[in-house]
Predict the structure.
Amino acid sequence: MAPSKGTTGEAPAGTAATRDRLVAAGVELFRRQGLAATGIKQILEVADARFSSLYHAFPGGKDELAAVVVRTAGAAYQQHVEAAWDGARNPVAATRAIFEGAAAALEASGYADACPIATVALEVASTNEPLRLATAEVFEAWLAAARSRLAAAGLRRADARKLSLGIVTLLEGAFVLSRASRSAEAMRCAGETAAALVTAALGRSTRR
Amino acid sequence: MAPSKGTTGEAPAGTAATRDRLVAAGVELFRRQGLAATGIKQILEVADARFSSLYHAFPGGKDELAAVVVRTAGAAYQQHVEAAWDGARNPVAATRAIFEGAAAALEASGYADACPIATVALEVASTNEPLRLATAEVFEAWLAAARSRLAAAGLRRADARKLSLGIVTLLEGAFVLSRASRSAEAMRCAGETAAALVTAALGRSTRR
């Protein structure tokens, strides 16, 4: 496919549309197979873009694209989770909705639609400091969002911090187990555990 | 380094010692950087082995080695965790010891010594079915070991299954967060949560 790219109707190099297609291709490929297994050629094929477009949009090449992909995918997943939270009638129902949504997405996608950054996070943690920082920033943003919503629900600051860590930890661990086993049982079980933790923490905060 | 391999004192191709060095190199490299980022050449360098040794020991090449690495590393970590469990005075102390051990290993290794198979598990889940099955078997063996110990401690079968899933999920999620953030906070917090879950489940089983 690649050699025909120059003759397709691709938008001019460097346009926002091409950049968006490159990022979207990165999100999809990194989520399914990780960073190292994804070659530049495959990104260009999925994005229907030319080599020159990639280096025009991302002069730093694959690593620069990857950092944008991690931050973009992390922000999109956070927005999705925050919408689920805001649409639920209380924090316990919100927690259940987030894990049930993750379980349903895993099942509907053949266990490919999972955490958009976990594979990259594990691949780069010991080998690529700029990309590790990008994954750390995403997790910290998720934790901050969870903390602020839990604090708004009446939890003490220390409780909100621990509980947000517990929820994100359960979600990430369940993505690993559910993808490996091709079963949403770990994700649904993690959702029950997370909901019980939220219920208990709200009970403690009410009894103060 | 590689060109000099043929003249070093490497043991004859195909011996058990060479095979062990290849597997040990795979364990270390896959844990730090994953499967796709690890080239055959790097495995041979770390193992101080020749190309011919690799294909003598593993005719299926990198994928065959990777499956053995996943199963070997998974069994070794299970043995390590079971020893910690058996050395503790009760299931709650055992749970604390496992997570504290993981936190200490992360800190001592600059956040490299983590789950030996999680990176590979996420990389291959949607792309390499034989390797996915190897990672799924490892997680299932860990869960079975946890279930049998929790059942021996008096938990009902259904409770033991859910709790073992909860513990392994928290451990795996905390490896992701702790490696990304270069902080053992997520692992220690997961340990507190896991210990609380074990305490609560034992309380329920005692009240029956």
Summary: Residues 1-11 of chain A have pLDDT under 50 and may be disordered. Residues 181 and 188 of chain A are 13 Å apart (CA to CA). The longest helix of chain A spans residues 62-87.
